[in-house]
Amino acid sequence: MAEDDPSAIRSIAISAEDAVDAYVYTQENPGEAVLRATPPFHGRMRARIHVYRIDDTHLTGAVHISPDAVIADDVLDEYPKLEENLESVDEDDAERLRKRHAEAVEQWRARASDAIVESVTLETDDSHEIEVKRLE
């Protein structure tokens, strides 16, 4: 199997903090954050947080794993959205809403860190399921 063939991957080690940070970043900012593994590929790989605006996987050969693929769906559904249109409220109310949202996100982060899944499907030419190994 070639070193640039992601089908060689059997397990991926991720930091729960990276997964949670990537998910929150994508919800709150422009651009996208993923967990990225780069060639050469082998049976056990480490994926680290990677932020981008343009997907360069076709150039680098990297594999991107969406953070929402490694966090349990029920926890993803609980992500606190900033519902209010902050432009329509006065500055003091806007600040209170931002603070309340930030506190809710911090509480969500704690739950999400404990909700890392045991496996994920890599979407490659021959998509296959791999184990997720949580780094402490």
Provide the number of structural domains: 1
Q: Total number of helical segments?
A: 5
| Helix-and-strand structural type | alpha/beta
Q: What's the mean pLDDT score?
A: 91
How would you sum up the major sheet? 4 strands, mixed
C-alpha termini separation: 31 Å
**Low-confidence residue ranges:** none
Described by the principal axes of the CA atoms, the overall outline is: elongated
Query: Strand content of the residues, in percent?
Result: 25-35%
SSE run: EHEEEHEHHHEE
Rg estimate, integer Å: 17 Å
How many runs of DSSP E, i.e. beta strands? 7
Protein name: DUF8009 domain-containing protein
InterPro entries: DUF8009
Organism: Natronobacterium texcoconense
Describe this structure in words.
- By secondary structure, the protein is α/β, with parallel strands linked by helices.
- The chain has five helices and seven strands.
- It has helices at 16-28, 57-60, 67-70, 73-76, 91-113; strands at residues 11-15, 32-37, 44-46, 48-52, 63-65, 119-122, 128-135.
- β6 and β7 (128-135) form a beta hairpin.
- The chain starts with 10 loop residues before the first strand and ends with a strand.
- 21% of the residues are buried.
- The mean pLDDT is 91.
- Residues 3-135 form the DUF8009 domain.
- It comes from Natronobacterium texcoconense.
- This is DUF8009 domain-containing protein.
